[in-house]
Specification:
It is built from no helices and 12 strands. It is an all-beta fold and 126 residues long. It has a single domain (4-125), classed as Immunoglobulin-like, CATH 2.60.40. A hairpin with a 4-residue loop joins strand 10 and strand 11. The model is unreliable at 1-6 (pLDDT under 50).
Length: 126
């Protein structure tokens, strides 16, 4: 299977966040990899974050405070974003992101439940 995130060129540095196929540990689960996105600072600061859906079903992602670290207005992140099965969602990082830890949610139709990370997956600036 080809890696969909390598089919499109992104300006470096970028980070792929993989939403992998479900695994069963007492029930079907999806573990976000990496569970925390470290945006960084200086020359190593991410320019793009790419969520890659390998779950086998559509996912819905909610990034309620992403306007603090991703380009866009607060209203842009209050609605769910759908990532079709086998597809990806690239979003650009703000050059002036606000330091903090920001939770987000990923609902996976393949397991009829939420993906897991460090409890909830999140993004951290710097």
């Amino acid at each position: 299977m080809s890696d969909p995130a390598t089919e499109v060129a992104f300006e470096s540095p970028f980070k792929k966040v993989i939403l992998p196929s479900p695994i069963t540990i007492d029930r079907p689960r999806v573990f976000v990899n990496p569970p925390t996105i470290h945006i960084g600072s200086g020359d190593s600061k991410l320019r793009t974050i790419v969520w890659v859906n390998e779950t086998g079903g559509d996912v819905l992602i909610w990034l309620p405070n992403a306007h603090h670290y991703l380009k866009g207005e607060a209203e842009d992140f209050l609605t769910l974003k759908t990532i079709d099965a086998g597809k990806m969602l690239p979003l650009e990082v703000r050059p002036d992101c606000v330091d903090g830890y920001y939770h987000y949610n990923v609902y996976c139709k393949a397991i009829d439940g939420y993906a897991e990370g460090n409890s909830e997956p999140g993004a951290s600036c710097p």
